[in-house]
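Fold it.
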Amino acid sequence: MLDVTPYLHRICYSGSTDPTRATLRALHRAHMLAVPFENLNIAIGRTIVLDEHLLIHKIVQERRGGFCYELNGAFAALLRALGFSVTLLSARVARAQGDQGPEFDHLALRVDLEEPWLADVGFGDSFLDPLRLAPGIEQSDPAGNFRLSSIGEGLRMEKADASGEWLPQYSFLLHPRRLEEFEGMCRYHQTSPDSSFTQKSICSLAMPNGRITVSDMKLIITENGRREERALRSREERSATLKEKFGIAEPSLFRSTHPKG
């Protein structure tokens, strides 16, 4: 059984743990504001294993982040330990050329309370609060406006751009999935030269009014709609920025994530 106390401490959460809508919302936002979306292990060729115990150890004990399989895999375990009903969902991410990725391209979560909710702490720059799992409703969020649209037998999550145009983010069916079913695409995303995760390193964290990101050798800060970007002049400056902004000390990247005992 997961000891939730260290996990809650990791995301700076001290509120109610009753499995309610308010708790889900607060936990989701706390996770987004505390745990970065990052692929630093991939950048150094360190294998990511979809083992729930290892995912939690990395996020909680090592105070690291991860990408969708890691972040949502661990968050699902926390929610279940608190008494929430959670279902893993397979999603296909929209591509710039207009098509979408394969099955298991992304891992999202369905949480069932009085009504179902879409939770997702692993899609980078996305909603801070869970979305109602119902099509046709425009849902306002600190990160923008979102909605779900019906598409075939499933749903598509969309975000409005600055002009109000709805842009597809990912589509998904509501079939329950198991964590091990995502292993093939998890391996692809950390090894294939065609994966965006092998083409550049990224570490990004939501802020209440924006986002802070280190992308390769650039620092990008977006706050209240204003974007500032500057180059990091050296590897040492990049390491110092990761430590200062995300609490990640680069030497820790090279230690094993496998807990002893």
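The helical segments are 4-10, 21-34, 40-43, 52-61, 68-81, 183-191, 196-199, 235-246.
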